[in-house]
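Student: Hello, beginner here. Can you help me understand the protein record under this note? Any guidance would be welcome.
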Amino acid sequence: MGRIVFYEDKNFQGRRYECDSDCTDFHSYLSRCNSIRVESGAWVVYERPNYMGYQYVLTRGEYPEYLRWMGLNDRLSSCKMIHFVSQPLPQS
């Protein structure tokens, strides 16, 4: 299970929106996104709704401003959690 928190302003200030699963459009909750906390898991965040536009892969950590995830602007609208599949090691 993963969790990501989007903040309207830099340094984790202002309104926030939390996700623990894929979200096709959170733009109606936040008009802009200037900081992100990835509490667990790995995520792909997208500039536009429905997983469109520029995309950024984020791993666990804090991103106090959009430049930290190499964002071009403060616009994000959708996200998907990356699901890792592990396979057993071959037996010798």
